[in-house]
Amino acid sequence: MISILNTYEAVQPEKVVFWFKAAPVTKFPKNGGACVKYKEMQIAVFNFTREGKWYACQNLCPHKMEMVLSRGIIGEEQGEPKVACPLHKNSFSLKTGKHLNGDLGRIATYPVKIEGDFVYIGFSE
Amino acid sequence: MKTVIVVGNGMVGYKFCEKFVSNVGQDFFKLVVFGEESRVAYDRVHLSGFFENGDAERLSMAPREWYQENNIELHTNERVTDIHRNSKTITTLSERTYNYDYLVLATGSSPFVPQMNGVEKDGVFVYRTIADLEDILAYADKIRKTVKRPKAAILGGGLLGLEAAKAVMDMGMEPHVVEFAPKLMPRQLDTRSSKVLQVKLESMGIHIHLSKATNQILGNGHVIGMEFGEDDILNVDMLVISAGIRPRDELGKSCGLKIGTRGGIMVDNTMRTSDPNIFAIGEIALYNQMIYGLVAPGYEMAGVAVDQIIGREETVMAAEIDMSTKLKLIGVDVASFGTPFMPAEKGHSIIFENKTESLYKRINVSHDGKRLLGGILVGDAKDYNMLLQMYLNEMPLPKNPENLILGSRGGEDVSFGSAMDLPDTAVVCSCEAVTKGQICCSVKEDGNESVKAISKATKATTGCGGCKPMVDDLVKETLKSLGKMVKESVCEHFDYSRQELYDIVKLKKFEDYDSLLDEIGKGHGCEVCKPAVASIFASIYNETANKQATIQDTNDRYLANIQRNGTYSVVPRVAAGEITPKQLLAIGRIAQKYDLYTKITGGQRIDMFGAQLYELPLIWEELIAEGFETGQAYGKSLRTVKSCVGSTWCRYGMDESVTFAIDIENRYKGIRSPHKIKGGVSGCIRECAEARNKDFGFIAVEGGWNVYICGNGGANPQHAQLLAEKVDRITATKYVDRFLMYYIQTAPPLTRTAAWLDKLEGGIDYVKEVVIQDCLGIADQLDREMQYLVDTYKCEWKEAVENPEIRARYTHFVNAEETDDNIEFVSLREQKMPKAWV
């Protein structure tokens, strides 16, 4: 399972070499998330309508290694957008992946863009 | 710019860096840190936590990026080998040389390995670093292939040894603690408390061998046992040595710093060694002829060294260092403070011991009965903070000092005063040395009005966290003294309590979360306010969780209980536990078809586990076709009304408890509330339905029903209290209608009825006045509101399976048909369970 964790590495916007066409915008609930499959990876994508922004991160919660983050409640703490894991309410920044209410490691975050009503996720390889 | 080099990246070395960067501008000093381990500084105190999650990063004091962000040059995996005091340089193992203006030695200690034959054998380990743990783990895996439950001995029954025992127990080995002294934790505990701890640990499966001097370690190449004396042999498959520590003072020795006769680099009260440009802190520092193996004094030394280097020369180490400790050892509270053992000529002791409960409390009191001198607590250390403060601040003792450990047993003598009675100089957070005065001042003058704000501003509570309750009290009491209401706002997005939000939603007729947040809140919401507001909408409009799905907790969003591996469990309603054979067959057939693990719940129904997200609507379609409804086991809502079989079958029954329970469960089903609600109905005072540990309960007695409210099981069991006696069914129902509605409208989020009643001014008598005497004049309204909820119930699972748009939510991926291949099951007693994470 630790090897699964290692398959997720954060991608900075300038490092994107490939935009994966994930799904139509309408598949993602407003102010909520859904999970996208890319190769063997599971990516949680969030439609943060209130901010007018999209975020993506690994679907894997590093606490108990479960694929659940896309089902978490999103929100914000002191202006930092975040997702709370549905299992134990560990919150992670959607911008930096930082664990906000504890000291788990960072989760991997990915750039998202919208083109022609489609959601694209950026990968570096 | 001056250069400060820190040798050692352990807890104390890290704390030095943290205090340094928060006190010093980066323009004046450059900080360079060397660590011998490959990992950045981690929390050695909680090393056994490594086994609970296998995640080394969780233990780290700060991530590597932290050092970068603060311009600290960090070299890990780099051992400093020499100090050249004349040129003020150091060299490292890779033969690099660095200049320093000030050198801080924080090299800590290494495990002490006693001289005996056989320590070189395979399977003998020390317990100090994560690398040690990984070696132990690897060896354990290896021997587990041939031995089913290997035995591991831990040499040393002190603090670290017992931590190590927990670690090997977590690895699935049988722990044997071997101690030279005739008792466990000889430095902290007296003989009796040590015995109490021993009995408790033995009951948990830890074997304890006292008064054992190890002659040699047996085995040919690898360890197979320990020999204590002739014919006294313990067979073990592994040995972990945890027999104390020795300071890592070799660097100081080789460059000619003054060293104590039994090791340790001598320092004065400024933490300077015999070379004024070199400081030593933590477990290598010999201060007052003592090595302090605790974190708190180490941190204090780090603070002194920082202040000395930046010129605050008035900061020095206290002449006497408090060695009080409180910790949780394998789940058992252990604490000692002041002078834990005391000869009779200095004072007298008050001792309370209860071996069946694994409790031991001792306080030492001066002969004149005026001062607390020290004490020991095992099994329950909740009074530690207050006792420690009384000791440290030499506060006067109450007239009956035994109340300090036994609690007040009537009379006027109150055992503890409030935290506000402490002097301003009292150190409340000893890890970060924050005083009561600083905390109160931060509340009053800087407007830090919550524990969170205080911890950010003063760092109090950020160490071991043990002072949190006391800081919380200080914040609340200080606010009260300022005449401020202690506002229980839901979270940072709403400046209102749940009750206020409830009234606002109702009066202003808000219908969705976003407009409520836009109108009266701020920001974009969070996982606290979203479900709280969702619950309020449900209680007022009886809307199902399907309508605003993304503000619901995950269980409500998907109408099922999320379980350990991200699968869900399914619970249909079986009102009062009454079920027909036909329904049983239907559940059996469906559970078998979808390969679900089934179990009878505590609420007299059947739980089916292991359903994947996409299977939920399929399962429910079939359950609904068989006449079932959602059981709302996932909701903060009515769960079940448990019943005994009652007068229809039972020869003792006074009334029909099953019929009443079915009616009540169907009446309240689907009603959402601040927390879950459970009910019970018993047909006689034998109380087989356990109605008195439910949020509401009815018990049939001669002449009617007794009505109880606000009980619960759970973490803090509480018996329900009597609301009304010998009333008929209609009256009993009406009272509970009103009580529930009143609770739903006034309780804070996630507060069970028992906790709500505890905080309600006037308690049960006030509830009686509201629901029976109608002192607020709201009884009619409560009746109407409850009736509305009862009349508008609908099954939210029926709604979900019939609506294609809602059904579409139940897929794991939005862009692929596949299911989550990460989910794995293993078999368990002819059923299945989630595969454990390794």
Spell out the helices and strands of chain A N to C.
Answer: HEEEEEEEEEEEE
Cα separation of the termini of chain B: 49 Å
CATH architecture of the domain at 2-109 and 247-309 in chain B: 3-Layer(bba) Sandwich
Give the tally of structural domains of chain A: 1
Order of strands, widest sheet of chain B:
3-2-1-7-19
According to CATH, the homologous superfamily of chain A is Rieske [2Fe-2S] iron-sulphur domain
Question: How many beta-strand runs of chain A?
Answer: 12
Could you give the topology of this structure?
The complex is a heterodimer of chains A (125) and B (838).
Chain A: H1 2-6, E1 18-24, E2 32-38, E3 41-48, E4 53-58, E5 60-61, E6 66-67, E7 73-77, E8 80-84, E9 91-93, E10 109-110, E11 112-115, E12 118-123
Antiparallel strand pairs in A: 1-12, 2-3, 3-4, 4-10, 5-6, 7-8, 8-9, 11-12
Chain B: E1 2-7, H1 11-23, E2 29-34, H2 49-53, H3 56-59, H4 64-69, E3 72-75, E4 80-84, E5 89-92, E6 97-99, E7 102-105, E8 109-111, E9 124-126, H5 130-144, E10 151-155, H6 159-170, E11 174-178, H7 191-203, E12 207-209, E13 216-218, E14 225-229, E15 232-235, E16 238-241, E17 245-247, H8 250-254, E18 265-266, E19 278-280, E20 285-287, E21 290-291, H9 295-309, E22 325-329, E23 332-338, E24 347-354, E25 359-366, E26 372-378, H10 384-392, H11 403-406, E27 427-429, E28 434-435, H12 436-446, H13 451-458, H14 468-481, H15 498-508, H16 513-520, H17 529-541, H18 554-557, E29 561-562, E30 568-570, H19 581-593, E31 597-600, E32 606-611, H20 615-625, E33 638-643, H21 657-668, E34 677-682, E35 696-701, E36 704-709, E37 721-727, H22 729-746, H23 753-759, H24 763-771, H25 779-791, H26 796-802, H27 804-807, E38 825-828, E39 831-834
Parallel strand pairs in B: 1-2, 1-7, 2-3, 7-19, 9-16, 10-11, 10-16, 11-12, 18-20, 33-34, 34-35
Antiparallel strand pairs in B: 4-5, 5-6, 8-17, 13-14, 14-15, 20-21, 22-23, 23-26, 24-25, 25-26, 27-28, 29-30, 30-32, 31-32, 35-36, 36-37, 38-39
